[in-house]
Design brief:
4 copies of one chain form a homotetramer.
Chain A lengths: L1 H8 L4 E6 L7 H14 L3 E5 L12 E4 L37 H13 L4 E6 L1 H12 L4 E5 L15 H22 L2 E6 L6 H9 L4 E3 L7 H13 L5 E6 L26 H13 L3 E5 L11 H19 L5 E6 L2 E6 H4 L11 H8 L7
Parallel strand pairs in A: 1-2, 1-4, 4-5, 5-10, 6-8, 6-9, 7-8
Antiparallel strand pairs in A: 2-3, 10-11
């Protein structure tokens, strides 16, 4: 009798979820999958609002009813909000992990307890997962879900959001292609990728770019202009250039400025504009720049990302059930796996300069500016 | 007998077609429709390359085989190329018609004769059609097809390319919407429309914009910021602003600079960036700008434009058959009609400030910045 | 003092809105626009669920908070639900208006009063608007918003949902085009349009169809096969056929069966399959059919429809404010207008057989099967 | 002197390429990549038309100029044509390899020699690659590129065309979702997948399906109906069912009929219709079916597939350069590799019933009908 009553009164298992860093397509799909998979086990899910900041006073949360996940699979952004600033943030980036102040960690842990959470799902990129890792080391049971539109996170073959960003950039290239050709112009598309050129090289190949500039391979203007000239000679009077925001001239420096972790904002006068101007000056051709910027972050996920996010979300809940804290779900095709978060953060997955993608570009006669 | 032989040897009727001004989605669909409709009548079609400049030495043309129109219905740009510069161009815009030098007209007419053309289909906007009108007045049998992505041409309810540009801008708004919401930001989208705000107000309404700035209605920053504040008060912590490139502050001046007809290029430091910066300064909120630029011109036409272009192309050939020279095809729903070219050029169709679109925006609580 | 108190206690104006008949893209966008435009005037809006049936016992309604219209602009379907069945429905179609039983009308009027409504916005096609007209004649203050994906409603140049349906059908044609060409096949696409061929002829032209079969022009198999043969002769070994579901052989009968108003369902063994089989038999070529069916109804609206729906919704609220009951909003480009509902219902707007669309098709060498 | 002259007159290396089996998005992108990568090495490429049949009298070929690959990256279908029939075809499928007649092999080899080919790139699925393998065993230097929209080929993590097919099916689910919800209906979408349910389960998860039926897991109607009832109970009055064409009732048989290799055609009265009817009968709810059929094959590739195809094409040329005949390019993320063709053919890669995808579906409360 007592047992029965106790069981009926027993609080349901409750887990939390938050999204951190810059938003990207698929965050909501992860949230939905976590909430649904948790509900399937009889757990309830609480959303933490505004990234980790939502765990500090004033604590901000949102109950996530598994019956009301309508529309989340396909929608962009994050219903939980996110944050790049505040007590947790710091100048991380490029493996410079930083120590979160002890009182901030203590406050987060206190909120975790007060909210009655058994585990926390942290969805984010390098910066966000670095914070998660520190909280885990201080005893908080966290599991991670890897998100970057840049795909520069180690320990997973791909991060969600990346396919959507590439699709956006490729679509932009398709558009610029027709207008470049009609007007015999050089068109430069600047895409995201401060330290890694995954979007640039993927979209560049998929979108028929003629020159692809990535941070991993410093470029020389004479090589770019040689490509323009070579095309001109063969009767193709236009050239499509894709430049990662972090592309830089050999011997040169980053044009984009440093910014707090996760707050990278493409500047209108970034590398794309610089490259376009220099090409125009050197070749005498009309050159125009298009900075894709936030368009890459916005909008709903591709179906590839919708599937990936759902797999990741479900896997995160399984990871909690197995007690796999301090770990992150990852894709190791054809399956999802889990890896220690520490394998993913603090270093950067860059495009291998002698790898398959770069080789494909070279094989097709695409210039990498070197 | 002689008659029969004469007829068999008679040269086929040959017409020419050229595309002028900035490119836009649907130009190829018009070319395809003209070529196919001409072929149906037993005529052949010759493409003039590079706009009107293709009629000057060295004359550049391209035979258009009606069997090889594959892919033109859906592709962006123009296979004929276009030109904004050269002997025909001049500072037109805003009704300032200019005189084409007599020798240029003579050269064009000579080419017309030498090419054996019976008529010329001119596809373009205000600048291009102004040239066509002058050539017509000097005796060249031309018919016009109205093209602008800005929709600012008189005498037709709509121009082709406009629906595609609005679709592009609306899609961009959808993307910015999710990222603005996730980050509690103000996002400013700058779209085309130097003198008329058709794209801005159409995409602004279709894309759920909160503030729409058009050239027809000078704006005040305090009104824009009041809208931001009002939304904030009601719990909506983000705001979407759509600004036509020609939007300007009440009492202010155009930020964009004058450029030769058809060569308008969105500048990265245009009105969008100015507005974003001012809003950020006044409200303390994060504000970002996205300049859509050439993306609006590029890519394939929407199905609406594909249909419209095909109707226009077929109607242009009928117009030639009827001898309706000096006229332009136009859409007067539900049908196509023809109107004198002179009714279309030299003035600008702006958004009526007390019309249905502006009223719709106001009814929905969208601020027009006034 | 009393006046002040009275005003403060005065009930807010409340209007109702319902959606009837088959769903189509844009219904939610109309709902959103009505709710927002009403809120701007200080009115509140009540949603009636399940079409007119929601006004009968048990009355089913849903308060529509203007702050919670997020996502409605872009989403498909209708949050209000709809109904093709029940006490109001009857075998209408083709102008056969029917009498709604007096007790049903009385019940609807009683609900209207009980709900405290000042007006009712009815969003629907011929069947739904016919009911609205009868209720108006019995004293209920209704205004209409014209919806059909078929575009066969009189008194408006276009209905919302149509552009979205055409876009869906055009996209399908693009897909069938590539596979037909790769396999040298005849592909038949069956689209909606029981009595009017607007979707078929619009998508057929926009999607590069070779044969377009519409209810307005009975077809002959020998004419269709002549087109297949003619293409074969010119080296084009595939043919795209677009057939409206109501297309029929000259002298033949409708293949699709009669169904209650609004409940038209494309049958898999409909005219498309019949035509494909007959072509295969007569020409010896492989022929395949694709029945687009509900895909045309589903999904979000195009940006064209999003704009149109918003204009319609705002105009409907203005119509109420002006007391224009018994009227329907309509598009008379470039503006919205209002017309008596009775001008729209009870007859069908078919494709003019000597109009611009049919002429365009013929000009391009597209066969209409006659 | 002689040497120099001989070298100058030496014929350029020439390779051939053909596409076989059912068409799918990305074939042209592979062709383009092969031609461009070959040209980069100074080789020329000859297209064999109509699949392997193009190598039999009358031999049909098409020179592929690397300068004229415009539009191939994005277009659907195959410019080389394909074939499912003829001397090479046979009832293969499910690992039943068949012997190609010796005289057919001899004829193909003779053509290969006569055309002066150094190698042949064969792009196709199980059937086509089985033929390639036999030709290789008889001495022809072939390399393979794996294509199936079904993704049921062994030895590669993914085949091209699959992502595009899943995107098409997911988009269809999005559309059916809104109409199902508006009308409280059960909608059944039948997708490709005769022996393997990859499309069904991937699109089913990505598109928010409620029931997913795949060949690997025989279903029971009572389980499906239990899901419908369970949703009804929780207030969700609609259900989305995704059925692979090869799905079957536990203890039942395939509804689709056997067909020659590669000629599988979805039948309108296939499993989808059967399932819809049975659900309607058992639950009393309205149920509709949509057969996606050829729409999945048609249209351009997704950007994912555009990238994959380009990587595959470039890798195939590298494989030839390395003399890796009898091998096939494959994706082993994050890189492309090559594997013996024999590892890929003659068996089927089915969805693991205890794998990550099925588990994800179960975790989310999606019924697999078992």
């Amino acid at each position: 009798m007592r047992t029965e009553k106790a069981r009926m009164n027993a609080p349901r298992t409750r887990i939390g979820i938050l999204t951190g860093g810059g938003d990207c397509p698929g965050l909501n799909a992860v949230v939905r999958a976590v909430v649904k998979a948790a509900a399937k086990r009889g757990w309830e899910t609480l959303g933490i609002l505004g990234g980790f900041n939502g765990m500090l006073a004033p604590v901000r949360t949102m109950p996530l009813d598994y019956q009301k996940m309508d529309g989340l699979l396909t929608s962009g952004g994050t219903i939980l909000g996110t944050s790049n600033r505040g007590p947790f943030a710091a100048k991380t980036g490029l493996g410079n992990a930083h120590e979160i102040p002890a009182e901030v960690i203590a406050a987060a842990k206190a909120s975790f307890e007060a909210l009655g959470l058994k585990a926390l799902v942290v969805v984010g990129g390098d910066g966000t997962l670095s914070i998660a890792l520190q909280l885990f080391r201080h005893g908080m049971p966290v599991v991670g879900v890897p998100k970057t539109i840049d795909n520069d996170l180690e320990a997973t073959v791909i991060t969600f959001g990346f396919d959507s960003a590439v699709a956006c950039a490729t679509d932009a290239l398709d558009r610029l292609h027709t207008t470049a050709k009609s007007h015999d112009r050089v068109m430069v598309l600047e895409v995201m990728g401060r330290y890694a050129g995954w979007i640039a090289i993927s979209a560049g190949i998929a979108g028929g770019g003629d020159v692809i500039l990535i941070p991993e391979i410093p470029f020389r203007y004479d090589r770019i202009c040689a490509q323009v000239a070579s095309r001109e000679k063969s009767g193709k009077r236009f050239t499509l250039v894709v430049a990662a925001e972090g592309a830089r001239e050999a011997g040169g420096e980053f044009v984009t400025q440093d910014a707090p972790c996760g707050d990278r904002e493409t500047r209108l006068g970034g590398i794309g504009a610089v490259v376009a101007e220099e090409i125009a000056k050197r070749t005498g051709k009309e050159a125009r720049v298009c900075v894709l910027g936030h368009l890459q972050r916005g909008g709903g996920p591709t179906c590839f990302d919708r599937l990936l996010c759902t797999r990741f979300g479900a896997a995160a809940v399984r990871l909690i059930a197995e007690g796999g804290f301090g770990r992150m779900v990852a894709l190791k095709p054809p399956t999802t796996v889990s890896v220690p978060i520490e394998q993913a953060v603090g270093r950067l997955k860059t495009v291998p300069v002698d790898g398959d993608l770069v080789q494909t570009a070279r094989d097709l006669g695409i210039s990498l500016g070197d």
